[in-house]
């Protein structure tokens, strides 16, 4: 089943209670955030978590009967980590949904198309070789340029190899991903040996370096790009039907597709800069959300963001607790789940 057929089927599906699904989703996200901040090597009761949070927003609301150490764990370490998980999950899910529309490919995903690998290449180049020449913005900027370069390379390879079908486009992305990751490995090989261990661990995906003063960058990029994509929901719906239909509706197909690719590269690059490579979120989440709310992008995009945030918060909980007190790279968790989902999706397309 192509993305066009899938969308046509799901467009017709009327969600039974959209508000109900939304309220349940928001409540699930808040509950997941509370649990994510509560669990860990040092368990913190939920009432303490909420007490610290409310006291930070409205000082002296509750009597602080908790230690300074617990407050630091909750506020300085776990809250920014959980919020970064929300940003990254939401961003990657929206990128996957958008790419699946403009390519009409249900397998489109920033990881499979090599965009995440491009972001990793740019981030590694900044971390190991160029240095932070414009401060904290250096890594996100270089990651964005890397993602954008990989995206353009995938488009060029697909044109060169006449890979116009959905499956061959993914193959072109996988090929570019291997090439870019090989180049990234060369950068690591040539870099400072004392820093390579940290970079290699970061490439596996992790949220442990989240800090309050850095969250503004993924927040601004996500808010701006998500707003644009949602405002273009009607155009994304038209793109799932086909280029000819979209053109008859007055949509500049090639320019809009390139715009979505650039926005996807921007979101992916910035998220990769702060979290490393986290795969398969953009592939899985939109398909799951289509089953719940249908294929209309006015609903699909915000619910994909919500579901992606919840998914990555729980993936991080698993990564932090399954081998506690050590952190397992979150990319391993999403890779295991995503790999199984990918096999299921291939089987579903055959049947």
Automatic annotation (TrEMBL):
Keyword terms of this UniProt record: Cell membrane, Membrane, Transmembrane, Transmembrane helix, Transport
Gene Ontology biological-process annotations: siderophore-iron import into cell
Listed Pfam families: FecCD
Highest taxon above the source species: Bacteria
Annotated membrane topology: Multi-pass membrane protein
Protein name, entry field: ABC transporter permease protein
GO molecular function, one term: transmembrane transporter activity
Family membership noted in the UniProt record: Belongs to the binding-protein-dependent transport system permease family. FecCD subfamily.
InterPro entries (UniProt xref): ABC_BtuC-like (IPR037294), ABC_transptr_permease_BtuC (IPR000522)
Organism: Octadecabacter antarcticus 307
Subcellular location: Cell membrane
Chief location of this protein within or outside the cell: membrane
Keyword Iron-sulfur part of the UniProt annotation: no
